[in-house]
Write a structure and sequence with these properties.
Layout lengths: L1 H30 L6 H12 L7 E2 L9 H11 L11 H12 L10 H10 L6 H17 L2 H11 L1 E3 L2 E2 L1 H9 L8 H9 L14 H16 L6
Parallel strand pairs: 1-3
Antiparallel strand pairs: 2-3
Helix pairs in contact: 1-6, 3-9, 3-10, 5-6, 5-7, 9-10
Length: 228
């Protein structure tokens, strides 16, 4: 019985410290930009194993300086209901589940909030444990950060090429310009490659990437004026 109480006590302490540390961690990143992510480190190690140079090309850009076209393209292409949900788009998740069940190739129903939580706080993977942590951190950033900060962090940490992270580094690499000066067409192309930025290149788009660009541009026209 004493051993059982000790185990329960240890579990309670572990839960307490996890909640405390995670809350502080999320609160800090509300005001301080994440310096690096697990995926960035993983990709750097993979490059080194392949005999390539270490490469983590990133350059932070404030949300107010990022082109409105690019912000709209990200929402239109990745999470059309971003401004209206509380971190989870259950209709999109249900649709993705049905299509996957029927054998159709489709992206998951993850929202921008979920992708941001995964990229900033967690490791890549598809386990139920990781998804549970992802849901937890998604709720936290929705409450503590808000939509503007979530989109800002997302557009600055998302993988956009081989060793390239964030919109500013990507736009500089592909077009030699700033992410603050993006056309609708270029913005849609950049977002179109996000499902597989290591395979597709927005400056040399394939027929499929052009097809996705068209869908994103169509969705962009349905979006109302952004609040940020």
């Amino acid at each position: 019985m004493n051993k059982f109480k000790i185990v329960i006590g240890l579990i309670q302490k572990a839960i307490f410290w996890f909640l405390a540390v995670s809350l502080i961690w999320v609160l800090i990143y509300r005001f301080i930009n994440p310096p690096i992510t697990y995926l960035m480190l993983q990709r750097a190690v993979e490059r080194k194993i392949d005999g390539k140079d270490l490469k983590i090309n990133k350059s932070w850009m404030r949300i107010e300086d990022i082109s409105t076209n690019l912000k709209k393209a990200a929402i239109a292409g990745e999470d059309i209901n971003f401004l209206n949900h509380w971190g989870f788009d259950f209709k999109a998740m249900e649709s993705a589940f049905v299509k996957n069940k029927n054998g159709k190739k489709v992206r998951g129903g993850s929202t921008i909030s979920q992708q941001t939580a995964k990229n900033v706080f967690l490791w890549p993977g598809r386990s139920y444990i990781r998804k549970a942590f992802e849901a937890y951190f998604t709720v936290l950033i929705e409450i503590i950060w808000g939509k503007e900060r979530i989109l800002e962090v997302y557009l600055n940490v998302i993988e956009m090429g081989d060793g390239i992270y964030g919109a500013e580094a990507a736009v500089q690499n592909y077009w030699g310009k700033s992410a603050g000066n993006m056309s609708k067409s270029q913005s849609a192309l950049l977002v179109a490659v996000l499902p597989n930025p290591l395979r597709w290149n927005p400056s040399r788009p394939s027929r499929f990437v052009y097809y996705k660009q068209g869908l994103i541009l169509r969705n962009m026209r349905t979006l109302k004026k952004l609040p940020f």
